Every structure is written in structure tokens, then in C-alpha cells.
Amino acid sequence: MKIMILGIQGAQFLVPTVCLLLLLSCNACESRVTSRPLIPGLHRLEIDGHILNVELATVDGTRQLGLMYRDSVSEDSGMLFIFPEAKIQRFWMKNCRIPLDIAFIDEDGKIVNVQTAVPPPPQARVFPRYPSLKPVRYVLETRAGWFEERLLGPGTVVNGFRGPRGQQIR
Fold first, then answer.
1. With bands split at pLDDT 50, 70 and 90, how would you rate the model's confidence at 165?
2. Which of 29, 51, 127, 135 has CA 20 to 30 A from 13's CA?
3. pLDDT tens-digit readout, 79-107
4. Do 106 and 157 contact (CB within 8 A), yes or no?
5. Which run of H or of E encompasses 7?
6. How many CB atoms neighbour CB 43 within 10 A?
7. How many structural domains compose the chain?
8. What tens digit of pLDDT does each residue of 3-32 get?
């Protein structure tokens, strides 16, 4: 009889403990999926369930260089440009070798407009500008077609668009 009582008491303790451990492990898995980049050194964005691992361009030098001189951009990667203040942003494709999608993102994380930019011919002296439709601080470049293939456009929310906490913007 005493063995049965100890067994019931042990089970009463064991069930809540197992449930708590399962809950904690699920939360740990969920936070790992939503907050950490797949590739160290990159920042993770989520757009309508689609994940992008992006380089950050937060200072003049990296913003000016952008994705110039690259021969490719992998499927779910790109570059997030973060500017010190919101204004009409105008991008160009000088020294770019690959076509890109350029998404302009407002202070609320909503895409204002997306433009597909094409590389100019090597002999070009004049470069088209690809502007935002309204003042923005955030611009995301991906490989051309990324947004259209996923049916994403103006009004779509970008999660993680402000960059990591404490990031210096100059």
C-alpha cells in the first residue's frame, strides 16, 4: 500500500515538472527561431513569414558601397540600409553587376514602395535614380524578383527593420 501512495505522490510531482520543462524548451526553440540570424554576423528580418538574413549598412561608408561589385546575392539575403533620419532616399546602380529589388520602409516597418533596379551598361555615364515615394529611414535590397515572387509589396510589414538594439547609426 505504501508503494502505491508514493507512486501517486511521485506522479503528481513528475507531471507538472515534465510539463514545465516542455514549455521552457518550446519557448527556447521559438526565441531562437525568431531572433537569431541563421548566419553569424547577419541580421534577421521577417516579412510575412519569409526570413531574410541581411548585412547592415549603418554608416556612410557601407551605405555608399552597398552591394556594389557583387556577382550574386543568395536567395534569402540582402542588405538593410539604415539612415540617421527619414527623407526621400534615392538609390542608383553604379558599379552594380546584378539586378536588385529595392524596398523602401517607413518608420512603422511598412513597405512604401519596391523598385526593381537593373545594372547600367559598363560605359554608362548617367545612372537612373530609384527613389522612395515618401521619406524613409530604412531601405532593403535583395535579389531582383524576391518581392514579386512572394507577392509582397506596399503595406507589407517588415519585422526587425530597425536593426539590432544599440546599433550606432551615423
1. confident
2. 29
3. 999 999 999 999 999 999 999 999 999 99
4. no
5. helix 2-35
6. 20
7. 2
8. 444 455 554 544 444 444 444 344 333 333
Distance from C-alpha of 122 to C-alpha of 153, rounded to nearest angstrom: 30
Range of the domain at 21: 1-35
Q: Are residues 104 and 131 in the same domain?
A: yes
Q: What is the pLDDT of residues 44-76, one digit of tens each?
A: 999 999 999 999 999 999 999 999 999 999 999
Residues 26 and 97 in one domain: no
Q: What is the pTM of this model?
A: 0.75
Strand partners, 51: 46
Residue 139 DSSP SS3: strand
CA distance 143 to 135: 23
Q: For the chain, give the percent of residues with pLDDT over 90.
A: 68
Residues 6+ positions from 61 with CB-CB distance below 8 Å: none
Chain position carrying cell 510539463: 19
Are 149 and 73 contained in the same domain? Answer: yes
Cβ atoms 80, 45 nearer than 8 A: yes
CA distance 47 to 127: 30
Take residue 162 and report the three cell numbers written for it: 530597425
What is the Cα–Cα distance from 117 to 143, expressed in whole angstroms?
Answer: 10
Please say whether the beta carbons of 140 and 80 come within 8 A: yes
